[in-house]
Amino acid sequence: MGKIVVAIDGYSGCGKSSTAKAVAKDLGFTYIDSGAMYRAATLHFLNNFLSISNPHDVEKGLRTLEITFQINPDSGKQETYLNGLNVEDEIRSMGVSEKVSEIATVKEIRKELVAQQKRLGRKKGVVMDGRDIGSVVFPDAELKVFMTADLETRAVRRQQELYEKGDLVELEDIIKNLAERDRIDSTRKESPLIKVPDAVEIDTSNLTFEEQVAQIVQLAKGVIDNEKDYAGNHR
Ligand code: DC
After folding, report:
1. Which residues are CB-neighbours of 153 under 8 A, at least 6 positions away?
2. Ligand 1 atom at shortest distance from the alpha carbon of 92
3. pLDDT category, 173, cuts 50, 70, 90?
4. Cα dihedral sign for 58, 104, 166, 19?
5. How many angstroms is it from 77 CA to the middle of ligand 1?
6. What's the number of domains the chain is made of?
7. Domain span at residue 183?
8. Separation CA 232–CA 5 (nearest Å)
9. Would residue 174 count as lying in a domain?
10. Measuring from atom 11 of ligand 1, which residue has the nearest CA?
């Protein structure tokens, strides 16, 4: 099968990561969770008491930051490593969730992570999810998807996800966190979350997980078979 880049953007808690992962598996592509990279950077700054308002701290933080992904041989799942340590669970904690949008507003941090993301997607055959994938990281992606879902639905899904990991969090707190992240992500100066004109919008509020995965896989296969991008331009 031909290799393309599938860019999936959207609001926090729309199920982008799990959907993107399943789409990649179906297509035999590599999945890259760009949000995990911002989360790992956040953990690094928090652990080392580095301030994003101090340019020296930002420079030091970036210089000492190494983010990698590895497949867990037991579960087959991809996990995030920060400077050689597995941080997959830690980066999903509320502590990191509360700080990550702020870290993601910093120009220098975005520049470094975007450069790494571009390198990871160079050979195509990737599905990457985030906020600026279709607009900044891969503006030439053959398929761009913009996922949405109403706030309440997203909060309930996130609560369930945290519960399954043993974290009991009030729905109210999750709603506040998601709304605040939506606000920061959409209004920031550097690469705000936007729906680019050539993205296909998928509202997942009333879709099952299987349905949303199937829709994107079908779109991707259509692009691969036609050798045209979604906007109809020959590749
Ligand atoms: O996808 P996520 O919820 O794990 O992302 C965590 C945060 O990282 C999100 O609030 C915004 C930021 N982010 C970003 O600014 N750009 C990306 N490409 C991915 C994530």
Report:
1. 204, 205
2. 4
3. very high
4. negative
5. 20
6. 1
7. 5-226
8. 15
9. yes
10. 101
DSSP character string of 160-210: HHHHHTT----HHHHHHHHHHHHHHHHH-SSS-----TTPEEEE-TT--HH
Q: Summarize pLDDT for 12-25 with one digit per residue, the tens.
A: 888 899 999 999 99
Compute, in angstroms, the gap from residue 234 CA to the centroid of ligand 1: 31
Residue 235 has pLDDT above 70, yes or no: no
Q: What CATH number did the domain enclosing 208 receive?
A: 3.40.50.300
Q: Whose CA is nearest to atom 14 of ligand 1?
A: 131
H and E: helices and strands count for the chain: 8, 8
Among protein residues, the one whose CA lies closest to atom 8 of ligand 1: 35
Residue 145 lies in a domain: yes
103 C-alpha to ligand 1 centroid (Å): 10
Residue with the smallest CA separation from ligand 1 atom 5 is 35
Residue 8, pLDDT score: 98
pLDDT tier, 112 (very low <50, low <70, confident <90, very high otherwise): very high
pTM of the model: 0.91
Sequence-separated (6 or more) residues with CB below 8 Å from residue 219: 143, 145, 200, 230
Nearest Cα to Cα of residue 18 among 157, 151, 119, 224:
157
Name residues contacting ligand 1 (CB within 6 A). Answer: 12, 34-35, 38-39, 100-101, 104, 130-133, 181, 185
Asked if 7 contacts 145 with a C-beta cutoff of 8 angstroms, the reply is yes
- Amino acid 231: pLDDT: 58
**What pLDDT is stored for residue 2 in this prediction?**
86
